[in-house]
Structures are given as structure tokens and as C-alpha cells.
């Protein structure tokens, strides 16, 4: 039986108010928010005062209506930043896939991101290969075996990745100190070389190579991954596909304003 973790009621109330703001026409009256949230107006008003001080809520100039504040808008902009940049790059991804006329260089390109509590593929671009090798977007990937997931994990703080690494290794019955050290040594090598690979991690014969995409601040936005079936697709770190990926990833990052050191 999993014990329910204790939370902070005030934080959950703030979340309920923000959800309520999304459900009503804005700027919203206090009574409208009361109906949307089920929170009594007196209590709701006290929360709105504090949320206005923090910038989550802004009081309308009339003094009787409320809207999202500057902090809420900045949070929204940050949350959509990666998606906007990927949308900007989409034509370049399509052109890149069109160049994969040789199965030695891959048969599909996936874009991976860290979403919520783990890495996943968010977009697929397929070549004209008759072999369909893609998986459903949204499926969480193995943080110790998938090229995309290992690449994304390599650039995340260890306090975020280690619980996931341990849970995965426990499931595989390989959670030892040596194995954890091996995983993090591999992450360090991925950061050093700028590329990750996996051989048959999800399906026998399906190999992958993955490289990072950075924005103008140097933040990792996504991983670009080439997939292909062996023996035609060589997913070694020294192969032609790896060299192509190590060339295209910095070029795409440059288009997002990233200047490599």
C-alpha cells in the first residue's frame, strides 16, 4: 500500500483558483471565481490579495475584477518556449528527414523532450522507408537504455534523475552502486561527446542515435534522434549517421540562437 504524501493545503487552493481563472471569462468577478472554484468568497478574496502581491493575479483597474498577473504570464511563456522553438524548426526537421535517402543514415527522426516526470518522444518525422518504426508520442522512455532518454537525462540535475534511475534499475533487479556509477559515467560521456546511442533498447534490431538541441541561453530544449534497423543502420558513435547528427544538431541549435562555446 502506497502512503499518500502530505502536501500544503494553501498551495492546492492557489492551484484551484488558477484552474478557476481558466474556466471563466476574464477579467473575472469574485462571484464568478467563487462559482468556478467552490471556495467561499471571503476566503477566496484573502487568497487573491496574496496572489496579487506575488504577481500570479492582477486586479483589474475597475477594482472589482481579476485576471492573470505578470508572473502567471511569464510562467506560461517559459512553459511554451520549447514548443515554439520546435515549431520554428519543423521545416528544418522535414528537410533533414528528406535527406535520409540512404537507410544507412536512418529511417525516422524523433524529437524528444523532458515532459513532466520523464523523457518522451513528442514528434515524429519519417522518411520514405516502407518500414514503420515509430512509437506513439507520449510514451516514457528508458532513462538507462534509450538514446533519447539518456541524452535528456544527461543534462538534467542528478537530484531529478537519480530517483528515476534507481527505480528503473530496481525493476531490472540491477540496482547496485556499481551500476548507478556506470549510468552516471555514461551521462558524463554523453555530455562530453554530445551524442548518445542505443542498440535494440525497445525492439530487437532497432537502433538509435540522439544529440542535443540548445536555445540561445544554452538551455537544452530537446533531443533529435535518428532511428533505423540493423544491420543497414549503423548506430555506432563513429559511424556516418553519428557524424551527420553531430553536424546537424549544432546547426539547428544555431538557428535558435545558441552559440557553442
Explain what the structure shows.
By secondary structure, the chain is an alpha+beta fold. The protein has 8 helices and 8 strands, in the order αβααββαββαααβββα. The strands form 2 sheets. The protein has a 5-stranded antiparallel sheet, with helices on both faces. A hairpin with a 2-residue loop joins β4 (108-115) and β5 (118-126). The relative contact order is 0.10.
Q: How are the SSEs ordered, and which strands pair?
A:
Elements: H1 9-23, E1 28-29, H2 30-37, H3 41-54, E2 57-59, E3 65-68, H4 70-98, E4 108-115, E5 118-126, H5 147-154, H6 158-171, H7 177-193, E6 196-199, E7 206-214, E8 220-229, H8 240-255
Antiparallel strand pairs: 1-3, 2-3, 4-5, 4-8, 6-7, 7-8
Helix pairs in contact: 1-2, 5-7
Give a brief rundown of this model.
With 261 residues, this protein is of the alpha+beta class. Helix content is 46%, strand content 19%.
How do the helices and strands follow one another from N- to C-terminus?
HEHHEEHEEHHHEEEH
Name the poorly predicted regions.
Answer: none
Q: Mind telling me the CATH class of the largest domain?
A: Alpha Beta
- Lateral strand order in the biggest sheet: 5-4-8-7-6
Instruction: Give the class from helix and strand content and strand pairing.
Output: alpha+beta
What is the CATH architecture assignment of the largest domain? 2-Layer Sandwich
Mean pLDDT: 84
Most strands sheet:
5 strands, antiparallel
CATH-derived topology of the largest domain: Beta-Lactamase
Helix content: 40-55%
Number of helices: 8
Number of strands: 8
Count of domain modules: 2
CATH superfamily descriptor of the largest domain: GAF domain
Instruction: Please report which band the strand proportion falls in: under 5%, 5-15%, 15-25%, 25-35%, 35-45% or over 45%.
Output: 15-25%
Report the principal-axis shape.
Answer: elongated
Query: Radius of gyration from the CA trace?
Result: 23 Å
Q: Ends: how far apart?
A: 50 Å
Amino acid at each position: 500500500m502506497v502512503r499518500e504524501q502530505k502536501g500544503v493545503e494553501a498551495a492546492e487552493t492557489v492551484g484551484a483558483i488558477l484552474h478557476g481563472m481558466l474556466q471563466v471569462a476574464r477579467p473575472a468577478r469574485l462571484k464568478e471565481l467563487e462559482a468556478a472554484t467552490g471556495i467561499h468568497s471571503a476566503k477566496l478574496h484573502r487568497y487573491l490579495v496574496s496572489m496579487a502581491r506575488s504577481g500570479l493575479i492582477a486586479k483589474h483597474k475597475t477594482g472589482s475584477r481579476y485576471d492573470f498577473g505578470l508572473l502567471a504570464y511569464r510562467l506560461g511563456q517559459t512553459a511554451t518556449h520549447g514548443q515554439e522553438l520546435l515549431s520554428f524548426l519543423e521545416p528544418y526537421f522535414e528537410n533533414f528527414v528528406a535527406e535520409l535517402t540512404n537507410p544507412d543514415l536512418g529511417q525516422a527522426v524523433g524529437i524528444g523532450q523532458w515532459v513532466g516526470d520523464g523523457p518522451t518522444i513528442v514528434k515524429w518525422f519519417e522518411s520514405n522507408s516502407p518500414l514503420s518504426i515509430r512509437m506513439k508520442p507520449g510514451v516514457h522512455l528508458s532513462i538507462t537504455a534509450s538514446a533519447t532518454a539518456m541524452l535528456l537525462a544527461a543534462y538534467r540535475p542528478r537530484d531529478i534523475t537519480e530517483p528515476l534511475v534507481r527505480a528503473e534499475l530496481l525493476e531490472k533487479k540491477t540496482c547496485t552502486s556499481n551500476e548507478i556509477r556506470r549510468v552516471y559515467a555514461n551521462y558524463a560521456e554523453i555530455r562530453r561527446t554530445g551524442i548518445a546511442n542505443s542498440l535494440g533498447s525497445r525492439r530487437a534490431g532497432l537502433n538509435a542515435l540522439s544529440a542535443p538541441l540548445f536555445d540561445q541561453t544554452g538551455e537544452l530544449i530537446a533531443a533529435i534522434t535518428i532511428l533505423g534497423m540493423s544491420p543497414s543502420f549503423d548506430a555506432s558513435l563513429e559511424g556516418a549517421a553519428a557524424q551527420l547528427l553531430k553536424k546537424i544538431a549544432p546547426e539547428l541549435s544555431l538557428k535558435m540562437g545558441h552559440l557553442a562555446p
